[in-house]
Design brief:
about 170 residues, about 35% helix, globular, alpha+beta, 4-stranded antiparallel β-sheet
Length: about 170
């Protein structure tokens, strides 16, 4: 999946470095700025990329970082039903696995959201998948708790985000 130069430059500016692999912007702010990218499951080097959805947009990334810094990972893991979370990891892994090239023979990414097999590793990855339309109970939990750190989710006063495909010329899927 070739990434348009304008998206690569915008994401590099948000990350403060050049992205390692191919990606698509799948969620944008209304003004077109990237919010969530969907990474290819394998980097050009052949190394597996366990993080399928990556939260790159601001202010969302900062808000979720504050939530993580305040113990959000442990809180989310305690609040979300373990079986529901395990099922989400399985769905995520299946989606990422289906994106592997048919002729791929090297190492493949493993685990669920952010490469973990159980529990919660990274609120950013869960929220990114949820924003992109994934059925992620932790991403939903994050959305419900952003107000604790000065943020707000879409529809609750947060930034207006849309699937990239909904914006004309938005580099959609």
């Amino acid at each position: 999946m070739p990434t348009p130069d304008s998206d690569r430059a915008a994401v590099a500016a948000l990350l403060g470095r050049e992205p390692d692999g191919d990606f698509e912007v799948v969620v944008r702010h209304r003004d077109g700025g990237p919010v969530v990218i969907r990474n290819a499951p394998v980097l050009p080097s052949g190394r597996p990329m366990p993080t399928r959805y990556w939260l790159v947009g601001e202010p969302e990334r900062t808000w979720v970082g504050r939530l993580e810094g305040g113990g959000g990972v442990d809180r989310a893991e305690a609040d979300v039903d373990a079986e529901t979370l395990a099922a989400a990891h399985d769905r995520h892994a299946a989606e990422r696995g289906a994106a592997l090239p048919a002729d791929h023979e090297g190492h493949a990414p493993s685990g669920g959201v952010a490469g973990t097999r159980t529990g919660v590793k990274c609120l950013h990855a869960h929220y990114a998948w949820w924003l992109a339309g994934g059925d992620d109970p932790v991403g939903s939990w994050v959305a419900e708790h952003l107000s604790e750190v000065g943020g707000a989710s879409p529809g609750a006063g947060g930034p207006d985000v849309v699937p990239a495909a909904d914006l004309a010329g938005g580099g959609g899927l």
